[in-house]
């Protein structure tokens, strides 16, 4: 009926999911937490409690990251991720997120990348950007993460990216479809 970990710690674990649609692996995973309710009314989830996880390295759908970390707190209404970060390429990704505990699992994320490859989000579902190299990104998005329903038609968001050559683009996603995206330059004209 229920399962709650009053206190847990993990050290140097390897966690792998080989699902071909989105394979991932986390290497040397460490973590700790308290009062983490993982099963409620015969349903798996993160229903309450808190946890902090970090690892030496990870790969998410063929994108390698270094030193990923995550801190979360869950209660009856929401799972809040207050710190989600990882190094990729020469830069860093940092995010916050919230996931509703209601059945539709309304999810919101805010992601910032500094000095990251412009194609970092492509393997995670955002279409390829028409600018290349390293740069900065800002993404805000929301969608419903349900077990038996597709995610893409529920995703709305906005991405702003600027590469090292000062080319920039802003794209909007509505119902999983990207629009807009004319490349402009922030360089002054002579």
From TrEMBL:
UniProt name for this protein: AsmA family protein
